[in-house]
Amino acid sequence: MSASTALGRGDLPDAWDSGDAAGIDPEHDRRVEELKPAGAGVAAFYDRAARGIAGAPDLAELKERHTRLLGRERGIVTGRLAGLPELSPEERRQSGRALNLIKRWLTELEAARRSALEREQESRSAQGLDVTLPGRKPWIGHRHVLAQIQEELLDLFHGLGYSVYVSPEVESDDYNFGKLNFPPDHPARDAHDTYWVDGGLLLRTHTSPGWVRAMEERQPPLRLVFPGRVFRAEQVDASHMDQFHQVDGLFVDRDVSMADLKATLNTFARSIYGRAVRTRLVPVYFPFVEPGAQLDVACVICDGSGRVRDARCPVCKGGGWIELLGAGMVHPNVFRAVGYDPEAVTGFAFGMGLERIAMMRWGIPEIRLFLENDLRFLNQF
Amino acid sequence: MKLPLSWLREWVEVDATAEAIADALTRRGLYVAGIETHGASHPGVVVARVLDVARHPNADRLSLCRVDSGHGELRVVCGAPNVRAGMIVPLATVGAVLPGGMVIQKSRIRGEESQGMLCSARELELSDDHEGIVDLERLLAASGDGAAAPGLGVPLDDVLGPPETVIEVEVPFNRPDGLGIVGLAREVKAAFAGRWTKAAVERLAAHPKLRDDFDLTLEAAEGCPRYIAVAVRGLAAAPSPAWLVRRLESMGQRSINAIVDLTNLVLFEFGQPVHAFDLAKLAGPAIRVRRARARERLVTLDGKERALDPEVLVIADRDRPVAIAGVMGGAASEVTATTTELLLEVAWFDPRRVRRGSRALELSTEASKRYERGVDPEIGPAAAARFLALLKEIMPGAAVGASRERRANMPAPRTIALRASRITRLVGHAFSAREAAGHLAAFEFPTRKSGGDALHVTVPSWRPDVGIEDDLVEEVARAWGYDRIPEAPLETRGVHAERTVRERRNERARAAMLARGFSEAWTSSLVSRDEAVATAALLDGAPPRLLALANPMNPGGAVLRPNPIAGLLRAVAHNLRQGMETVRLFEIGAGYVARDGALPDEPALLAAVAVGPRFAHAHDAAQQAMDFADAKGVWEAWLDEMRVDTPSWRTYSAAGWKPGASAEVAIGTSRIGWAGTLGRQLLRAWDIEVPEVHLFVVRLDAMPPIEAARSGVNLPGRFPPVRRDLAFFVPEAVTHEQLASALRGAAGERLVSLELFDVYAGHGTPEHMKGLAYALRFQHPERTLTEAEIQTIQDRMTAAAAKTLGARLRER
Asked: Are residues A337 and A265 in the same domain?
């Protein structure tokens, strides 16, 4: 081996010898023997280098030693390999083989020693960790129960081709009543206890003014839903709130009939209460529809029997049915009010309350809970 | 409206159960709210007299009674304190079954034999009274049935009447006919293809014989197209018969006296209010139907003196008003038990006129409720005849005296053309004109064919709600049955749904707050004026243009909120009071701001509040109360998720915030929101006593649309970025935002990120300065930047910061 490639034990610190190379490499002695033909110095160098790797006390020192041996710029072995081209072909062949073996074996040893040290370090750092202790937990947000119901309804109607239309909460008498065929001085207005705003406006008592605005803006065919907050001037108690939420729907086209209405409402009822739900459509009066209808569902508590354990069902009050929503065919006067020709188009509309659906679904006894925002309530949803 | 079955059966022959009738009415639009049974049956309970009362030898509280059961004398042990000799009582004889199911047996009570039981009202299910046994004389006197004491041994049920089944109908506003037994009977008749009873046919056709000699003038005929006045003389005080008392009781109406009871009976039966004046108290005697004159006053039957105005239609005698037309009679002409002659009024008033009077006087009665909705203008004579016939039954001496009917401008019967094709089109099922006519006939609508598929339909006088063709479509549909309407296949018909920009924006805003661990609140739109003013001041120095309610229910809901802050603070206060230590809530909702000459502005706002520690759980030093920076980090992350790329945070101050701890957020020059920590004084107004409440408010309408926020994509660079750190000293007043924006501006596009990693003061910091240190990353998309290039950029940044802000590079 020439000067530029010569290696010897003296190239490395004496202290390295304390390492137990055979402990991590059962082949160690054989490998040292194998190197001897390339020179006793080479074999001795390898022996000390291997012991140095095996005995590296920690990851930092291992890295240090590895760099010293195999570092890209200043590693001893790397340097010797770089000197190979200067040698005669014969020397190059012999030294080259030895150096490459050393490089390969040391790389293997370093990897083995490194994983052993890492394991050691990891188990040291995990010592005393009680995995049963609670974690550092971030907060979780909950969607409001009414938002969930509204989203469910809008998703359903979206699937049936209905887009959302948002209209003002503060309205004029004309849009809340007049154009919806509530004649002035008509007793039907008595059912809508109205909050009046200074200056003659009012807080809408239903979301139906939205139909009027939408129809004034657009031409049929229309398929829209109108979600939003509505107001009634009522004393608040367990079952009355002066603010609550509705979703109205409207479908206007050349020939829309009660058969279309029934299919739509039943699809809705099945989606909310399951495919087996029993429904009935009965006549009812609203000024803005003719014919008018109400969809009832069989009481979910008593299954329509009206009795629970030999007593009158508290939810349907013994009737076996629960009002789910109001509906009907849009009144010709409403069409006239928005400039539609009632002979040219027909349409149906429906409206429902979110609170009612939520109260029935979860057995919520108090309507006031919805706007109280008690986290113990909100966070159950 | 209550519908007692026995009364219904007096009018129609129908062979159906109460349940079937209720179901049929509901399916025809007269919604039945419930069926109730009034009274109970009491087999084996008889009328008895207590002969004498002795102390029970073995019990202080019991007595030993000798009782005449009408069929012999019995010994009964009784525990009631009110039992006394001579009392008429209900006696449950051996074998009697009480409504609760108890069977009476012969027994020994404390050693004494008892051959029956004296009953309390509760035991008989007459009322909840369990204080003592029923005093039958007093009970019957109270119900107006003062006739001779019931005979001993008579079954109690014969005295009290059999139990009554009452169907409670929710009559819709448009069906005044449903407010009379006759109208409901007509619906039942149609539903079961039944027929009127013989008595019903006679009663409906009856017409009183009038003499046309009473002094009656319709001065305001537009408000009163029909008035029948009938004087009746020869009245003698007589009690209402038991059947009348029972009938009114089943309607929830107590007995007053025979005459008044009869007016009530006719009201309920025909839906036609009738009134009886004491004729002796009418000046003239004459009746003038006219508008009230200014400053006229009337004491009504309820004892209240009412100021009248010309909007109010009144019934006057020769001199002054004696009743408010269609609403309530006057106290001065009220009939009493001693009235010997009366004047019967059966009138038809214009619904709008009655409604105005009722509203002007804020007085709503059974009569006004019916007139407002529309009484049958043709039923008057039958109602008058019925009243007079019954009066004569009760007071055989009664004789019709002066009387007269006047009519003016009576509504003419309406005729409406109905096309079978219209029914088919609206209902979605094919109808022929013939079928339609059949259904309408069941409701007594006369029809006539008028060529093609059309019918001429005459609307009966009792159906003022039917005015147009589509109303008849509903009549046909409900007669046929909504149940039979088919379900059409759902079709798109070329209309597809779209999610609006607003929906998508709100949904993302909501999801982004939920992801930060905030729960969604829905709070009241109505707040107090103080709350509105205080919260508006947080966001804008100027006083808010509030919308106040004209008729608030309480001061806490006097105005519409300008923003959702007050509701969230109420929620914070509520939850803290309930013992929670953390409140993280947000709301997406409208504020309301008045505008001149237009509907109010309803800006979409997002507001969020945070109180409490950083983590839902942590038991180490990481757990700290949220401070300004924690909160701001949340708001920044939210803005990031809303794709607001470079929001600028600027110092901002307004009343209500903790001094120095509030900021505004802007995109370019447009302000989109506010954030900060609230001041103690503001919080005290909501009784919130925690040190820090963080608030964030965003004007969602001012946010850039999510779609437009980013155009195209930046391809990730293949050449690794170079990181450099720069630390500056800047004058204390210079903000991070100022320095960062100066640095960014000077750096140009090779600077891909700039992140603050340290703020320091103290050792080594020049006086009145502070240190800010930034980690910079430079990158070129197509090659590795050279050291020299980076240095040039850095120099440019340093120079700009020095020039505009007096920043000095901190030497290492």
From this structure: yes
Beta bridge partners of B751: B778
- Asked whether B143 and B249 are in contact (CB, 8 A), the reply is yes
Question: What are the distances in angstroms from CA B131 to CA B64, B67, B122, B123?
Answer: 18, 20, 9, 11
Query: Does residue A79 lie in a domain region?
Result: yes
Name every chain B residue with its beta carbon within 8 A of the beta carbon of A201. Answer: 547, 599-600
Binned at pLDDT 50, 70 and 90, residue B711 comes out as low
Same domain assignment for residues A181 and A120: no
Q: Which pLDDT score is estimated for B146?
A: 46
Q: How many residues make up chain A in this entry?
A: 381
Residues within 8 A of B (CB atoms), A 138-167 only: 138-144, 146-147, 157-164, 166
Q: Which of B426, B483, B522 sits opposite A291 (nearest CB)?
A: B426
* pLDDT tens-digit map of B102-117: 888 888 888 888 888 9
Q: How many residues does chain B have?
A: 812
What's the DSSP call for residue B30?
-
Mean pLDDT of A339-359: 96
Nearest-CB residue to B519 (from A161, A199, A375):
A375
Would the pLDDT of B145 be above 50?
no
The residue range of the domain holding A345 is 145-378
Per-residue HEC secondary structure of A229-261 comes to EEECCCCCECCECCEEEEEEEEEEECCCCHHHH
User: Least CA distance to A251: which residue of chain B?
Assistant: B495
User: CB of B370 within 8 Å of any CB in chain A?
Assistant: no
Does residue A139 sit within a domain? no
The tens digit of pLDDT for each residue in B730-781 reads: 999 999 989 999 999 999 989 999 999 999 888 888 889 999 999 999 999 8
Give CA–CA dist B520/B248, Å, rounded.
53
A266 burial level (CB within 10 Å; 0-12, 13-18, 19+):
middle
pTM equals 0.83
Q: Which of A127, A162, A185 is the last residue of a domain?
A: A127
Chain B positions touching A144 (Cβ under 8 A) are: 519-522
Among A residues 183-242, those touching chain B with beta carbons less than 8 Å apart: 185-188, 190-191, 195-199, 201, 203, 221-223, 229, 231, 233-236, 242
Interface check for A76 against chain B (CB to CB < 8 A): the answer is no
Are A60 and A192 found together in one domain? no
Specify the CATH number for the domain of residue A295: 3.30.930.10
Which residues have CB under 8 Å from B191's CB, separation 6+? B21, B24, B25, B28
Confidence bin at A1 (pLDDT 50/70/90): very low
Claim to verify: residue A205 and residue A100 sit in the same structural domain: no
Question: Which of chain B's residues have a Cβ under 8 Å away from the Cβ of A375?
Answer: 519, 575, 580, 583, 585
DSSP letters along A291-337, please? EEEEEEEE-TTTTTSSEETTEE-TTTTTSSEEEEEEEEEEPHHHHHH
